[in-house]
Amino acid sequence: MSRNTAFGSQFNIRAHRVLSNEEQQQRRQIYRKDGNGGDRVAIEPGVPCRYCDHCKRGKYNLCADMHAADFCFKLPDHVSMEEGALLEPLSVGVHAWTKRQIGLVTLLAAQALGASEILITDLVQQRLDVAKELGATHTLLLDRNQSAEDIVKRVHCTMSGAPDKAVDCCGAESSARLAISATRSGGVVVIVGMGAPEIKLPLINALSREVDIRGVFRYCNDYSAALDLVASGKVNVKRLVTHHFDITETAKAFETSRYGRGGAIKVMIHVQPRDANNPVKF
Ligand SMILES: [Zn+2]
Questions:
Q1: How confident is the model at residue 70 (pLDDT cuts 50, 70, 90)?
Q2: Angle 266-268-273 (CA atoms, 0-180°, nearest 5)?
Q3: Residue 52 C-alpha to ligand 1 middle, in angstroms?
């Protein structure tokens, strides 16, 4: 179901199809693997070649020959299929944060992995409300008409100074620029969002202050950490699920996700009736 052949082509796993991470869109399939006793599993989408230099060095997320899926993570009984599906975005969050990711899941990962003060910015108050509810220390509603300098000042005044790390999760040029400008000297900026292929960044500002700009692609050895966070209760991803659709309503589900209808954050498409495979109801 993916349009993006660069990383995540369509594939079948027995009778079930997995949606891959696609342009930061927010729709997730329930994962299930038949056979082997019918274990309930989350699937890390994508199988690297295991032969190239990237694979040999353990950086399999950079493999150019990624295909199909067989990375299965068995879910404990108390972890629902919906939570299993959310391990995919959460893994991106874990990868981004530990790499010193995408929006709210990065917030969850940052909290669980020890960030003491977290500020979330957005252009939409409703998303900030959810961020606050999920435990963000501060939220800051941005206004497109404000100057970049003013926004940096507001970030620094709202927080107790410049942040050690900033993560751009949206891919807009203004957002990546803000991440660099607002981060303290010697800090780290992770750019997760992928928007235009070329953007203008304040590179000299970053270089002269030794701000380390890092990229993130997919996830690498992050799924088990993501599952641990969910299974242990350190991270609650349930609040992110705003909509549920039957498989026959797939087109509607995609539209809801694409346009953020009804406050959509994560949209679930159910292959089987809801909770059919959850020992503990979602
Ligand atoms: Zn490879």
A1: low
A2: 155
A3: 4
Contacts of 272 (CB under 8 A, 6+ apart): 30, 32
| Element (DSSP H or E) covering residue 224 | helix 223-231
For residue 66, the CA-to-ligand 1 centroid distance in Å is 7
Distance 60 CA to ligand 1 centre (A): 6
Question: CB within 8 A of 197, min separation 6: which ones?
Answer: none
pTM attached to this predicted model: 0.62
Q: Which domains does the chain have, with CATH numbers?
A: 12-86+237-270 (3.90.180.10), 93-215 (3.40.50.720)
Higher confidence at residue 218 or residue 30? 218
Who wins on pLDDT, 248 or 73?
A: 248
E strands, the chain, in order: 12-13, 16-17, 27-29, 41-44, 71-74, 119-122, 138-141, 165-168, 188-191, 212-215, 241-246, 266-270
Please give the structure tokens belonging to residue 157: 């005044």
Mean pLDDT of the chain: 77
Ligand 1 ion: nearby residues, β-carbon < 5 Å: 48-49, 52, 55, 63
CB-based burial label for 19 (10 Å; 0-12, 13-18, 19+): buried
Q: Rounded distance, CA 264 to CA 87, Å?
A: 18
Asked if pLDDT for residue 104 goes beyond 60, the answer is yes
Backbone φ and ψ for 52, nearest 5 degrees, come out as: -75, 170
- Helix, strand or coil for residue 222? coil
